[in-house]
Amino acid sequence: MSLASVAAQQNAALAAAITAARSAATGSSGSTTADSGATTGTGAGASTAAGASTSAQTGQAALTALSGNFSNFLGMLMTQLQNQDPTSPLDTNQFTQELVQFSGVEQQITTNSSLTQLIQLTQSGQVMQGTAMTGKPVTVTSNQIPLQNGKGSLTFTAPAAGPAAIVIAGPNGQPIRSVSLNAAAGQNSWSWDGTDNAGNTVPDGAYAVSVVGANADGSTTPLSFTVTGTATGVQNTASGLQLDLGALPVAFSAVQSVGA
Question: Fewer CB near the terminus (10 Å): N or C of the chain?
Fold first, then answer.
């Protein structure tokens, strides 16, 4: 393969990676804002407690309302029984069915309250497990790379040896770091020193990233990758529990491995 062909493949991979990084930056910006808005409380414990308190209050309110309605129903029933026309007594089947319906609703509300408590206990356990990850290196799947203390790293898999490109984009979608390299077949690792294309140091944060491989026919293929960062906390959001890698929040389902 000629040097010109290799250069053409690298350029193609770089152009595709830039496009992918811009798209990831735009999407990540919106999702990060949404996640931040969904977070309740000032931390994992506070948000979990707030959610538990709201659920408990809702269940208690429903039981209180049902109890009041049930008491009113029994009072009206006793009044009717005491003042019924002996020649036309009340239909016992009707009020028996109504009693059964009230009992069924009461059991459903009690069951829902029990399930809510079970969910709260499960979430509390997950928060404790997530807290145990704090301070440890965690590898996750994400289209963003966490830059912590001026360092970031990712691992990608190439189906065959050949040119590849890695592009990191800023919040506005503009590429700030572009790298062309020759990937080996299989797993490849790359570390970011926290500088842009001009050699300037960029602030810590979560940056959109893309990895693209070039094919011999001139086409390009997005390559799967994972990013690694240090777990800094756990938060409970409306969409579920999330693990924080510095400025990058990820779902627990995105966690691939946890280091020592």
Answer: C
